[in-house]
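Lecture notes, unit on binding sites. The following record was shown on slide 14. It pairs a sequence with NAI.
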Amino acid sequence: MSSYDVIIIGSGPGGYVCAIRCAQLGLKTACVEGRETLGGTCLNVGCIPSKALLHATEMLHESETNFAKMGLNVAKPKVDWAAMKGYKQDTIDANTKGIEFLFKKNKVDWLKGWGTITAPGKVKVGDEVHEAKHIVIATGSEPSSLPGVEVDEKVVVTSTGALELPKIPKKMVVIGAGVIGLELGSVYNRLGTEVTVVEFLDVITPGMDGEIQKTFQRTLKKQGMKFVMGAAVQKVDATKTKAKVTYQLRKDESTHELEADTVLVATGRRPYTEGLGLEGVGVQVSDRGVVGSDGHGKTNVDGIWVIGDATDGPMLAHKAEDEGMAVAERIAGQAGHVNYDVIPGVIYTHPEVANVGLTEEALKEAGRDYKVGKFSFMGNGRAKANFAADGFVKILADKSTDRILGAHIIGPMAGDLIHEICVAMEFGAAAEDLARTCHAHPTYSEAVREAALACGDGPIHA
Ligand code: FAD
Ligand code: NAI
């Protein structure tokens, strides 16, 4: 029996980051992982492979729409789907091997196999039981399906199957206009698939700022994606090669059907905590499998912690990473902390969509006095030169103190631009602080400064 200070179950962005931080803090650490490779959902079947396909297809789209405008006359690119999937796999391999290297460098033991907590301080992997002063649950999440919908990962797929389709479908129905549906829907739309998104609500990406939702949906429609809104999917009938999706419109309860070669079910994910032995050791778990905590990663059982998708909060890799670091620091007796008010969200479509903090709807609901500073990328020289002037930056600030409360961006590099505002919010900055900071010209980030100026006396280029 081997003995550790900390055993982490799961090597996704929560687990591997927690393991490395524990080791850096001088704790003897092991990480249990049942997959063949480290890195969890994110590196194997999530963030990394989806971004590789988004990048490749965005290059395709760029070459088809903008090259000729810049005097670049090239033959229309031919898509080699097998090679594109090969590039995606190489990207996954480079990243998962990178974690293996980091584990060796930091002397983190990888315990290969599926772990079960048999008692507080005891984790069974295969036939061996390992001891640890602290156990961290970092087992992540899995796709959740719908009643009446059977996933076969061939014709009716989750994101995992959608990243590995043997050929590019002619018609795809995406159930759910959330992050996965719109990112992977965009990939196939750019590859020439006729993509129809069926969404239960009347808006896409629920929870996002309303103005962004509208602009985002309009932009995706212009790119060729179709939407059926306010529609509850009732069932999917599939054969070996085709599927029929039946949905009911909420407004008049009429029933309709859509045919497709592939149906992507993207209606959310649920924590992957079954079979871990949590009930046996008395760890509180909700009906949906969410492991409860004190809000700082500590479960109700001493010495058992939880991070990432397995617990409450947004299911995002960087949220899992931050929790991993904070829990490692708490285990080591330090004051680990995650600021849940400043966790950015990014959708890696074209254009990108990014947000942090409160939406205008949330501010209205809370009865807060706020002001809005908006700036369109039409007024940004760099964006105009790069055919990327669709979209805007919107900053929400407290009306009397000018403190930044939230920001929402749709436009080029939105996922990178948002971080300037995250840092400002961490420091409790006012919009004027951003507005008075010199921004290099010509950069997309000038649009952020202009939106901050719009919270005061007004932008210059609008
Ligand atoms: P996971 O990454 O799910 O890792 C958990 C690991 O634990 C898995 O490898 C699993 O095999 C292992 N495990 C589970 N149980 C056991 C056990 N009993 N024993 C041993 N090992 C076990 N988030 C972003 O922030 N940005 C993105 O761009 C993004 N894109 C995404 C795209 C897709 C298609 C998907 C599906 C998700 C995406 N996400 C993205 C979400 C992101 O992947 C998750 O939020 C993140 O991976 C959660 O990290 P985690 O460490 O909690 O768990
Ligand atoms: P989601 O929660 O983002 O979206 C699910 C959508 O499905 C919602 O719009 C919901 O209203 C809709 N829906 C639910 N039931 C339905 C029904 N019966 N018929 C029609 N529509 C229905 O979930 P998604 O896209 O599966 O993503 C899961 C998680 O993965 C998210 O929490 C997200 O944070 C994470 N993720 C993050 C990414 C990023 O950060 N870029 C990329 C991909 C995933």
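Take-home: The chain is about 30% helix and 25% strand.
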